[in-house]
Amino acid sequence: MRDTCQRQYALERLLSKIALELFESAEETSFEKNLYTQAAGHAMLDREKVDAIFQSTLRPYEFYPMADAGASRNWMRKSLVFEDPHYLVNHLYASVIAVALFDKAHSDPGFAEKYGALLRRGFDADPKVLLATMGIHLDDPHLVEGAAHLFEQKTNDLQVLYASR
């Protein structure tokens, strides 16, 4: 029973982290991109314009009323957009790559050897080249699909655990 509880806890934490990275990071990254794109060539955007950009960005992600979801206090809490431009885009890529590495660690029998070689090599090349040695390609449109598949797989595993209790 204890092993089941520990596995359940671990799966809940993993799913929580993947959901945060896939869904919230995608939303934040979209907001950051739209904000910078629409601000290009303008001296400054006022609060109302940023509110409008935030609401239009959130609309595809939200099921709550947009009047509440798009309030200024929500975008103002996303301080990295202003403190560290493009951090969120890089963070989203890093998260998707981390999920791909996690998946490979559990599905590729040669993963440990390849990963060890990558770490011993150091970071002496472009990230695209380094990740390709692990079978991960940054321009692969299926990276997100792979993360979503892992999320679905682990959700199914957790449902089985719940049903067995």
Q: What does this entry look like structurally?
A:
The structure is a single chain. Helix 1 packs across helix 2, helix 1 runs antiparallel to helix 6 (87-107) and helix 6 (87-107) packs across helix 9. The chain is mainly α and 165 residues long. The chain has helices at 2-39, 47-58, 66-69, 72-76, 80-83, 87-107, 111-121, 127-132, 143-163. The radius of gyration is 19 Å and the shape is flat. The relative contact order is 0.13.
Helical coverage, percent range = over 70%
Contiguous runs where pLDDT drops below 50 for at least 5 residues? none
Largest sheet: none
Number of strands: 0
Distance between the termini: 9 Å
Shape: flat
Determine the number of helices (DSSP H or I, runs of at least 4 residues).
9
> What percent of residues are in strands?
under 5%
Overall radius of gyration: 19 Å
By secondary-structure content and strand pairing, the structural class works out as: mainly alpha
> Overall mean pLDDT score?
85
Secondary-structure element order, N to C = HHHHHHHHH
